[in-house]
Amino acid sequence: MVQQHLTIENGWLNEVEQQPSSHFSVRPDNTAISLLVIHNISLPPGKFGGGYITDFFLGKLTVDADPYFTTIASLRVSAHCLIERDGTIVQYVSFNDMAWHAGVSNYQGKERCNDFSIGIELEGTDDIPYTEQQYAQLSLLTKSLLNSYPSINHNIAGHCDIAPVRKTDPGKSFDWARYKTLIK
Hints:
The chain is an alpha/beta fold. The protein is built from four helices and twelve strands.
């Protein structure tokens, strides 16, 4: 479901599903939100649907659902939003708070990217193309974020850019040129 308009009020999108996660922190004082980080996730790896990503970000992943889940169930991870394959946006953490998406990271010499970034997950993998709906929703969401958090000022990176030794997402399947054209 692709929206035509997204508004942000007190850090929350009004027009999307909200699933508040306890996996967040208050941002450090006087920290401007100045980076948008694009990620991908699929649970189990390479499979889509099933609600497992939401369960994971809420700390409710059932290990019996898939053997892989035993390796990640104890992790405390979140993102601000997820964009599913059909374009549905789910928000887990207020943009004004710090989601736990970046891990050990560095952007332009500044460490601890969670402190000053917003993390958006795309349901996908490094090597499976993202959907039309995902690009449409990501561009709409990005425009809303740039309007509400102007310090981002087009500082947009992949997880691979802020943690290059550890991460590869959003991967070679993400069309950066297409995305940048859509957000102009």
